[in-house]
Each structure stands twice: as structure tokens, then as C-alpha cells.
Amino acid sequence: TLMDEMPYLSSTSAALREEIVAKEKAQLELDALKKKVGSDQRSILWVEGESDRLILEKAIAVFAPYLADRIQIKFASGTEGLKGLLVNQRKDFLFNAFGERKIFVLVDNDFDGRSVVPGSGKFDSGVWNLTQSGAWSCLLKPTLEYESWLKEYRIQKNDISLVIEHCFSANLRNEARKVGKYNYLKYKNDRLYQHMSSKQHEAFETKYSELPSDHLDYFYLHQPAGDCKDIFSKWVTSSKNVTPENFSAFKPIVENLVFNL
Questions:
Q1: DSSP H or E run through 169
Q2: Is the model's pLDDT at 4 over the cut of 60?
Q3: Buried b / exposed e across 136-160, counting CB within 10 Å, b at 16+?
Q4: If we measure between CA atoms, which residue out of 97, 110, 145, 122 comes closest to residue 245?
Q5: What share of the chain is helix, strand, coil (3-state, %, to 5)?
Q6: Chain-wide mean pLDDT for the chain?
Q7: Rounded to the nearest 10 degrees, what angle do helices 50-63 and 251-260 cross at?
Q8: Distance of CA 11 to the CA centre of its chain
Q9: How far is it, in rounded angstroms, from Cα 138 to Cα 204?
Q10: CA separation for the pair 137, 128 (Å, rounded)
Q11: Which of 117, 137, 219, 225 has the fewest CB atoms nearer than 10 Å to its CB?
């Protein structure tokens, strides 16, 4: 009867409304990004923030300086602003906004970043993948140092919180901290251990509690302080710090970008 079907119809209607609102929001986000580009006809690499843009500019200058004539780097003011580039499945969606320019979207390899990359669990980080929207997406790739740290603390792949500052060694960030150019939050990141068993979590807490106050693991266990991101990006992109060794985490990302341009 109609009365029996009412709960189903109500939930279906609510789901449709949510879908419409999400599409409208994505369109507004895309329109905002379009205004930032202007008439420049080069391909576009979108990143989350201004600090990311500074760092990627230098990474390209180190590993593929000739790309400056072929690609522009723009920031979208956060992960949410990038969603409109990736979630729409219509092929004409990006074309109507950016024409024939190729669109690349680089996001943090954390919970928020992975949530805006369709099918992110199927892809390797550091590799560009073509999404159904027509944009190319890529998650930041953990360094060997970061991967070693993950294994030591038994942190699972779907719990990592890799942001762009983590692409630089703990030693380099410690050097920045000593001169007031970097800092991390006071409390450890609780998303790192949300899928651990109780036994694993107990071992994690024991190891954490025994760390000396100056241990480099804090540079991974604690997220970068928000007020240091711009300061650190300017410090790490100064001429003395822009070296292939310091920027090595970005080499596969830039090389794969060249391949897909």
C-alpha cells in the first residue's frame, strides 16, 4: 500500500535532494575555480593551498623546469574546493569551464584528501589517474622515511595523514623548527590509530609515552601547526633549501605529470 511505501519514498526523496545539493555545490566550487584561471591557456595543476603552490613550483623547477611554459599552478583554498573538479561524471563538465586545457588535481594523502578522489583506494599514491570527470588526480606519495615510520607504529594505509609538510624529512623540519619556521600541534593525531586493534593501540600508546621530548617521531605523530604552513613553505622554498635531495618526494609526481601532459 501507499502507506507502506511512504518510508521508502521519503528516504528516496531525501537522497535525491542531497544529490542535487551536492551537484549545485560542486558547480559553485567549479565556477569559483574558473575565475582564478582567467584566459591563460596552459594546463592547470590544482593544489589545496598557497603553501602547496609554492612547494610544487619549486619541485617542478628542480625536476622538470621546462614545464613552466606548459602548466600553471593554482590553489583552491582547501580540499573541499577541489571536489568540484573530481566528483562530476559528465565529460563536458570541465570542458565548459576550462576548454581543452588538461586539469590535474594534487591532494593530501589524508582522510579529507582521499575522500574527494573517486576510487582512491584502488590507486597507488604518487601516480596520476584519469577520473570520470576528465581531470587527473594524484595523492601525495609517502617517503621511504614515512613508510618506515608507519611500519614501526603499525599504522594502516587507510589511516595515514600525509600532508605536504610530511614530504620533507623530519631532520629538515626539525632544522626549520629550531629557527622558528616550523612547529607541530601539541596533541598527536588520533586518526592514525582509529583502525588498530585494542592490543595494537595499547602497544602504540606505550611506545608513544616513552618517547623523549625531542624525538623526531613527533614530526609524524603530530600534524603541522596551521599557523606555520605558510612560514615553512617560504623557508623550505628559499634557494638554499631547494635541492633534489630535499624535494625528492615530489620527483615521481613531477615525472608522472610530464608523462600525462
A1: none
A2: no
A3: bbbbbbbbebbeebbeebebeeebb
A4: 145
A5: 55, 10, 35
A6: 86
A7: 80
A8: 33
A9: 30
A10: 5
A11: 225
Q: Compute the distance between CA of residue 147 and CA of residue 223 in angstroms, rounded to an integer.
A: 16
Q: Which residues, 6 or more positions from 222, have their beta carbon under 8 angstroms from its beta carbon?
A: 184, 185, 186, 187, 188, 189
Residue 142, H or E segment: none
What φ, ψ does residue 239 adopt, rounded to 5°?
Answer: -55, -35
- pLDDT, average across residues 166-189: 96
pLDDT, greater one: 123 or 183: 183
For the record, the C-alpha cell of 58 comes out as 619549486
Question: At CA 67, angle to CA 61 and CA 70, rounded to 5?
Answer: 145
Of 116, 122, 163, 115, whose CA–CA distance to 135 is shortest? 116
Q: For residue 6, what is its C-alpha cell? A: 511512504
Q: In this structure, what DSSP letter does residue 139 have?
A: E
Please, what is the Cα angle at 100 between 99 and 103, to 5 degrees? 95
How far is residue 14's CA from residue 40's CA, in Å, rounded to a whole number?
A: 41
Strands of 71-75's sheet in order across: 71-75, 43-47, 103-107, 136-139, 129-130
If we measure between CA atoms, which residue out of 130, 109, 106 comes closest to residue 118?
130
Q: Is 72 helix (H, G, I), strand (E, B) or coil?
A: strand
Helix (H) or strand (E) holding 44: strand 43-47
